[in-house]
Amino acid sequence: MKIEELETYCEKDRVDLDALMHELSTNSGCDGDTLHNAINDQGCHIYVIRDEGRIVASGCLCVAHSTEMRLGFVESICVCSTMRGQRLGRHLIEHIISEARLMGVQKLHLTSHPSRIAANKLYQSLGFELRDTNDYRMVLQHLFK
Hints:
CATH topology: Aminopeptidase
Oligomer: single chain
Number of helices: 4
Structural class: alpha+beta
Number of strands: 5
Strand order of the largest sheet: 1-2-3-4-5
Order of helices and strands: EHHEEEHEH
Radius of gyration: 15 Å
Distance between the termini: 33 Å
Shape: globular
Number of domains: 1
CATH class: Alpha Beta
Largest sheet: 5 strands, mixed
């Protein structure tokens, strides 16, 4: 299975991504407007792995600039529960790291819930360091209910 950047999509792709996002959290999802905006955002790169045409893993690299540097944010990494244990997550993250390097990203950020033990071990094995920081968030709009 190869990794591809999602540059266009059909409704089946959106449904596959929506199902994956629901595996991350019942509060997550993927609607058409959000997917359309992400694909058309030059700083957003959605990578997917397909199995027989179906998206079974996905992750997003968001690239932004600050006054200090070019930053990357890894978001929404998910492997379908029926496909776990096949190293798809590892391949996906390695690909995202490689792409971030090619884009000149200087620091790559990723957050993961502590309950996702296997995912957190994977991220640490690939060189991500657990930081001692306060992680703040402000929800401005609830997209999915």
